[in-house]
């Protein structure tokens, strides 16, 4: 029940003012969202890369209500690509996009989102990197996967995200685990009905392991999106069983969460990619994160007490 309350707060101007004015809010935001514009993010990219980490970057923004806003989201990513070019990091710095930001929910949204995301994928390819399409709620997934399939015709390195808690995901994973594919597996953070998704944490964890085994045994490139120490250990074991070398899969975690573990995995020779969000709408992004999975409150609270 807490999720809908937080989501409602994310759309309230009054709550925005109250939360934004609280001193503790800035501390949390600074910890997990390292900047509001591309000038802020470039030094962060350099710092993380110098520490042996890789990145995937998300430009956060307001809810998209018209095509002009969708075009502005596209342009923000194109500006990011332009600023990444001189860093010459290649795939060590990629981008993550939510197709809702590119107009997916508007009239003729599928075609509009494809039209807006294609230039970003093209620009990324020109500087030697790529884009991953984030998963959102289950009603958008057929559109996302269709756009993913279309983009891969010209840009086969384009990645996508699948969510372990959805019943459909095991079948999606079998189809996606093909040569050249890049698939990020996450548990899933949206509030989904029991008709389409597991509700019990243990069931979700078991589904995660089943799907990850499928990806590891396939011919694609699995990306393990989790902060769960047990699942990270299982991922390493499944990779070993599948005969994968450390460069044949990777771990992904959010910026500001389990930082020391990120550095440890990188130091051990694993590919460790940090999901790094930035943008002026930090409030909306932050509150939607909590609304998607209120358990994230524990992550943020713990991180306020520990600096590692």
Give the tags.
8 strands; 8-stranded parallel beta barrel; 308 residues; single chain; 13% strand; alpha/beta
The SSE order reads HHHHEHEHEHEHEHEHEHEHH
Indicate the overall shape.
Answer: globular
For the largest beta-sheet, the strand count, sense and barrel status come to: 8 strands, parallel, barrel
Structural class of the helices, strands and pairings?
alpha/beta
The counted number of beta strands is 8
- As residue ranges, the low-confidence spans are none
Could you characterize the architecture of this molecule?
It is a single chain. This protein has 308 residues and is an alpha/beta fold. Helices cover 52% and strands 13% of the residues. The protein is built from 13 helices and 8 strands. The chain has helices spanning 2-10, 13-21, 23-32, 38-50, 67-84, 109-126, 141-154, 169-176, 201-217, 229-241, 259-267, 282-292, 296-305, and strands spanning 54-59, 93-97, 131-133, 159-163, 182-186, 221-225, 250-254, 272-278. The chain has an 8-stranded parallel beta barrel, surrounded by 7 helices. The two termini are 31 Å apart.
How is this structure best summarized?
By secondary structure, this protein is α/β, with parallel strands linked by helices. It is 52% helix and 13% strand. The protein has an eight-stranded parallel beta barrel, surrounded by seven helices.
